[in-house]
Amino acid sequence: MSNTERTFIMIKPDGVHRGIVGEIIKRFEQKGFKLVAMKFMQASVAHLENHYADLSKKPFFAGLVKYMASGPVVAMVWEGLNAVKTGRVMLGETNPADSKPGTIRGDYAIHVGRNICHGSDAVESAQKEIALWFKPEELTSWEPAQNPWIYE
Fold first, then answer.
1. Are 8 and 73 in contact (CB under 8 A)?
2. Among 24, 44, 136, 138, which residue's CB has the most CB atoms within a 10 Å radius?
3. Cα separations (Å) of 46 from 2, 70, 80, 96?
4. Neighbouring residues of 147: CB distance < 8 A, sequence distance ≥ 6
5. Which of 17, 51, 111, 118 is the catalytic position?
6. What's the N-to-C CA distance of the chain in angstroms?
7. pLDDT tens digits for the chain (152 residues)?
8. Could you write out the three-class secondary structure of the chain?
9. Whole-angstrom Cα distance, residue 142 to residue 36?
């Protein structure tokens, strides 16, 4: 399949705390993406500073890292056709007030600092983020030769 790619999606502490992890996973499954990897974990401050390094000069950086380290997150890798772009569309705008109904942030979030999910913004950043959060052996392959569909 052309344009098959992987994206990194992370459910932030507010999404975990509110108990909507299953709803978010359900949306990606219903869209047709395949879950390649998933971890429920408490991320360290150092790990989060590395993840958000591109925002380190922003005035909200320290608060973002502190918040992200305040509770567990669900880190995931999803695979499918145009997964990065489509994943971003599914999440909605960074500021939930600008997100349309039907998007994850449009349906579940009201504050930019508590916007439920992080999603990779480009194929290159997805590759970097996936490598930061997962070891290669933690990623599942969905190649038909390796994992035939259950009904085949």
1. no
2. 24
3. 36, 13, 30, 27
4. 140, 141
5. 118
6. 19
7. 456 899 999 999 999 999 999 999 999 999 999 999 999 999 999 999 999 999 999 999 999 999 999 999 999 999 999 999 999 999 999 999 999 999 999 999 999 989 999 999 999 999 999 999 999 999 997 666 566 555 44
8. CCCEEEEEEEECHHHHHCCCHHHHHHHHHHHCCEEEEEEEECCCHHHHHHHCHHHCCCCCHHHHHHHHCCCCEEEEEEEEECHHHHHHHHHCCCCHHHCCECEHHHHHCCECCECCEEECCCHHHHHHHHHHHCCHHHCCCCCCCCCCCCCC
9. 8
HSE of 115, CA atoms in CB hemisphere, 13 A: 21
Token pair of 117 as six digits: 């999910």
* Pairing of the two strands 4-11 and 34-41: unpaired
